Amino acid sequence: MYVQCLGAAGRVTGSCHLVQAGDHRILLDCGLIQGRRKDEDLNYDDFPFDLGRIDAVVLSHAHIDHSGRIPLLVKRGYTGPVYAQDATAQLCDIMLRDSASIHEHAAERINRKREAAGEEPIEPLYTAADADMAMKQFRTMRYHQKFDVTPSIRVRFRDAGHILGSAIVELWLTEGSETRKLVFSGDLGHADAPVLRNPDTVTTADLVLMESTYGDRGHRSWDETRAEVEAIAELASRGKGNILIPAFSVGRSQLLLYWMARNFDEAGLKNWQIFLDSPLAINATSVYEQNLKLLDKDAQDLWSNRSIQDSLPNLQFTRTPDESRAIHLIESGAIIIAGSGMCTGGRIRHHLQHNLGRKACNIIIIGYQAAGTPGRQLVEGAETLKIFGDEIPVRAAIHTIGGLSAHAGQRALVNWYDQFEQRPPLVLVHGEPDAQLVLQGVIRDELAAPVHIAAEGDQFNLLQPLPF
Asked: Which of 73, 91, 149, 437 has its CA 20 to 30 A from that of 120?
């Protein structure tokens, strides 16, 4: 009876953990590795387990760094079920197809160059057909519903408050007469964040796997965050420029739309044109509207009698490439929300190409930026950014607002773990090493708890005392 960390160990992306109880094996998540090119190339490697021995996949939520290699599993022969919360499956239906399209287009671009060089073409990591096949293998479950994944593994999803459908995963593992409980936090939401409910409390476990994305820092309060965003909007209006917000299409984009609707007058938004320039974000917003019962009371009250788009009178959904390109003609007065959240692709790169070199413009970074990504370069003060082969000078003002993060900050992570009885062994995953070391120290000092930072390949036997 063991769990083995095969992804998001020593890094944030690529979440994947192998769980075995008796003769049965399952995967917790199967996500894409994101960041530097050398890191993303790891997605093409063979899986570090025997595909034929995997009985099921249990998915914590739809973000691509947790779900994005499920179509690759299917492409390489996996035929078993994928268990997910209802809304997670709905989001994966659009996100995995979007991811497949990105891989197909990337392969097309590379193959044009390879053909010119007389080289053999490459295959995309996976295709839309692989994503379609993967979706046929999804099995949907509700929060708080216990279900058997295999004869020796029982699971329950609890609300993680991170994005729509995100789950804390409770697993009861049985081997012979012994049963142990494993709890996987998934990605924990930012407490008291708008739109979603707070993460559920779990109090019992024999071993806890917990994310640690912001293990070295906290977030400002929501009142401070609102004041910070309003100050940027006021500054931008005086400078007569645009505001660009690279945003993850699922979660962060919907939070922004809620925040703008709730603070429309105070933030002076009536003088701006607001664009949600992402077909994926637009489709995800529709899924949020279909699942209002999963939102917090304030969001339900705001959106129960009108659509999300109608809650902002000057909001435009730009679906087509032509509609997106038309925004490039606007030199002032536009707030542009576009993916990708780390500026690695998507329409935000076109908008950065047109606005990054202009002093009057403002770029607001509102989410985690993986090492090596263009978004991380901007946060770290890069003077130029390479976009479509050109070095663009960074003259726009760069603002980082951690208070809009969808991840729990350090204090929230400590408090969530503190609710467990008898301080079960804790393994930190889904974080960068520096952040994990800080969080490990805080939990040891404050709670005298056994904490281990996972390395890739680490294996923990739940039937034996753990050596930390």
From this structure: 73
